[in-house]
Amino acid sequence: MGSRGSRAAVIPDVDSIRRETGFSQACLLRLYHRFRALDRNKKGYLSRMDLQQIGALAVNPLGDRIIDSFFPDGSLRVDFSGFVRVLAHFRPIEEEDTGMRDPKQPEPLNSRMNKLRFAFQLYDLDRDGKISRQEMLQVLRLMVGVQVTEEQLESITDRTVQEADEDGDGAVSFLEFAKSLEKMNIEQKMSIRILK
Ligand SMILES: [Ca+2]
Ligand SMILES: [Ca+2]
């Protein structure tokens, strides 16, 4: 469809965004419409409040943390390419993504490793490369329901950290985190339908 193709041209830097994120042109166009609809005052960027309108994030216990990741380095606005770059971590891994990759190209944002890195930084609030017991406690508090007492929460936290903590330093490194999630299907868990 010619008219669709020419409309895609209005997306700034569309070619480099497509290469970096792996989203198809049609998908980027839909995301661009979504971006513009979320941008309530037609500012050209999104604020935290704009992103809070996304239903899938509103119901996600880690939704606020995911929203944080749109604003690295304390910035208060995210443009379209930043928006799509975060969303790319949630793009399902497709059959066609595997095997065909040029090894000189950077790893796709939706690879298992990048999904794990993204998940890890939702826990590692102070970005020191380790999930401390306190950081684990905070995430578990968000994820478990109100029916759990503080005491139970503390013991769940201790167990979770102990199970993952192989070198016994009392914290969970990225490697330990990746290992402990090995049995979980992270690819599937980190594939959210963002357009619904
Ligand atoms: Ca930390
Ligand atoms: Ca450790």
Short note summarizing the structure:
By secondary structure, the protein is mainly α. It is built from twelve helices and two strands; from the N terminus they run H-H-H-H-H-H-H-H-E-H-H-E-H-H.
Structural account:
With 196 residues, the protein is mainly α. The protein has 12 helices and 2 strands; from the N terminus they run ααααααααβααβαα. It has helices spanning 2-8, 14-21, 25-38, 48-51, 55-58, 63-68, 80-88, 112-123, 133-143, 150-164, 174-180, 186-189, and strands at residues 130-131, 172-173. The protein has a two-stranded antiparallel sheet with strand order 1-2. The model is unreliable at 1-8 (pLDDT under 50). The structure holds calcium ion (CA) (2 copies). Residues 124, 126, 128, 130-132, 135 line the site of one calcium ion (CA).
